[in-house]
C-alpha cells in the first residue's frame, strides 16, 4: 500500500469514536509502568505510548493515532505502545490501526501461549514466557518456586506493541536502559525485540541460579544423618517447578535461532548478531535445567534408597526384639500347661531358677544381636 493510502487509512481510523477512545487512554491516564504497584493505572491496559526518533524519546502530548500519523508521514522513527492484559474491546481499535492479524490478536488477548515466532505479512509476532522466582523461607510440598507470565510483541517497520500478562516481567526498567543507549535504540523496533528477548533470557538465568540454591538445600538435607526423614514431596515439588520453567524456556530456542539466522524484513542484519548472543545464553540455561533434572532424579533415588535401608533396619530391630521376647514366652507357655508331673514343678527354688535361665538367655540373645548390628 502507498504512503498516501496509509495516511488516508490512518486518518479515516482517527474519525472512529471507538478507536479514539481506546487510543487516548495513553494520554488520559498516567503513563507509568506496572513495576511500581503503588502507581499502577489499575483499570487501564495502556501502560505507556512513546515515540522514538533516532533513538531519542520525543516529548509526549499527542495520542496514539496522531503519533502513528507523524511517524508514517515522516518515515522516521517508531512508536512503542505498552499494554498490560488488554481486553478484546481495548485491543480492537489498536489492532485495526496497525493492521494486526486476527489470529495474533487473539493470542495476545487470551495469552497462555507457547513461546513462538510468527510472520504475518510485514508484521512479526513473538511470544515470550516470563519467569519469576518466588521467595520462600522454607521449601514445602506445596511451595511455589517459579511464577510465570507472558510478553507478546508485535514488531513492524514503524511500531512495537508489547502486551504483558502477569504481575511481573515489567518492561519499565528495560525501557529506561534502552533510552540510555540511543545508538542501540536508533536501530529500530528490532532493537526493542532483542532487548526484550535478552531481558527474558537473563531472568531465566537468574531463576535457575535461585533454584540451584533450593536444590542444594534439599541435597544437604537428604544426605544428612536423618536424610530418610526428608519429605519426598519437597523433591517432587522442585521437579514440578522445574517442569514449569522448562515449558517456558525450551520452546524459545527455535524462535531465537530463526531470529539469529533467517533473513527477516523487520530485523536488521546487524541486530541478528545480538540474537545469537541471546541464543547462547538460552543454551546455558537449558543445560542448567537438564543438569538440575538429572540431579533431582539422583537425589530422589538416593532418598528412596535411604528410606528402604531405614525400613530394613527397623525390621531387623523388630525381629531381634521379637526373638528375645520369644524365650520367656516359650518357657512360660511350657510351664503354663498345668500338668501334675513336670520337672522341678514342686521344687522350692524352681521359680528362681526359671527366671534366671530366662534372663541369661535373653541377655545372650541381646548381646549377639548388638554385636551383629541388629540392635
Proportion of residues in helical segments:
55-70%
Strand-residue fraction?
Answer: 5-15%
Number of strands: 7
- Main-sheet strand order equals 2-1-3-7-6-5-4
What's the number of helices? 13
Name the shape in a single word: rod-shaped
The N- and C-terminal alpha carbons lie at a distance of: 89 Å
Helix vs. strand class: alpha+beta
Question: pLDDT under 50 segments (min length 5)?
Answer: 1-43
The pLDDT mean sits at: 79
Main pleated-sheet profile: 7 strands, mixed
Write the H/E string, N to C.
Answer: HHHEEHEHHEEEEHHHHHHH
Rounded to the nearest angstrom, the radius of gyration is 35 Å
What would your notes on this structure say?
With 375 residues, the protein is an alpha+beta fold. The chain contains 13 helices and seven strands. It has helices at residues 3-14, 17-23, 25-28, 64-74, 88-98, 102-110, 172-179, 182-185, 189-222, 232-249, 253-261, 269-335, 350-371; strands at 46-53, 56-57, 78-84, 116-120, 123-133, 146-155, 159-165. Strands 2-1-3-7-6-5-4 form a seven-stranded mixed beta sheet, sandwiched between helices. The chain is rod-shaped, with a radius of gyration of 35 Å. The protein starts with a helix and ends with a helix. The relative contact order is 0.08.
